[in-house]
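Journal club side-thread
Mid-discussion, someone asked how the predicted structure for our own chain would compare to the paper's figures. Pasting it here so we can look after the session.
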Amino acid sequence: MTTTTNPPGVTFGRVMRSEWVKFRSLQSTPITVTAAFAGLIGLGWLTCALTADRWPQMPAANRARFEPASLSIQGYVLVQLAFGVLGVLVVSGEYTTGQIRSTFSAVPARTPVLGAKAAVFAAATLVAGEVAAFAAFLGGQAFLSSQDIETNLGEPGVFRAVAGVGLYLTGIGLLGVALGWLVRHTAGAIAALVALVMVVPGLASVLPESWVPHVVPYLPSNAGQALITVRPSALTLPPWTGFAWFCGYVVVALAAAAVVLKRRDA
C-alpha cells in the first residue's frame, strides 16, 4: 500500500498538464487521429460516392432501406478500435516503460493520475471524433446531392446521430483507458476490449430467441450505438437511454480501475 497524500504543490491542474504532455508526445496519438480521419472521412466519402454512382440502377428494395446520414458516418465501426487501442496505450505504455513508478512517486494518491488521464484523453478524442464525423457527413452528403438523395442536419435524428459519433468513440476510448489500468498489459487489455466491443455482440446471436430483446440492446457497444442510429429498430434502445447505459458501463469500468489502482503495487 502507498500513502494517499500528495506532496505539497501537487494539484489536479498540474497533474492534468503533465498528462497532456504525455498524451501529446505519445507516438500512437497522431497515428490514431490520422486513422480516425482516414477511416471516418475516407470510408464515408467513398461509400457515398459509389452509392450516388449506382443509384439509377439500384433495386427498389435497396432504395427503400437507404439512409443517407448513416451511410456517411459508418466508418465509426472501424475507427472505434483505434480509439479503444489508444486508450489502452495511454496507460499500458507507462507500465511497459516503467515510467508509471515515477508518475506515482510524484502523485502518491494515484487516483488524480487516473482522473487526469481520463479527462485529457476524453477532451482530445472528443474533438477529433466530432471533427471527423461532421467532415464525413458533410462531404458524404455533397456526393449524394448529385442524385438528390442527400439529407441535412436539420432532419429528425440526423444531428444527434452525427454528433453521437464523437461521444461514442470517446466512450470506447475511455473503456480502453479503464482496461489499461485493470489489466496493465497492452495485449491483454486490447484483447479484452475487442472481446467486449466486437466478439460479445456477435456471440449474442446464439442466445435463445426469447432472451435477445432483453440482452442484445443492453450490451455496451449496442447501447452506445443507439445514439448514432437514425432509424431505431425493435432491438435498439431509445438513443439517449442507450447512451446512458453505455456511460454507465464506462463509469463502472473507471471506478473499478480506481479501486484496483489504490490496492495493488505499481
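Post-session note: The chain has one domain: 12-263.
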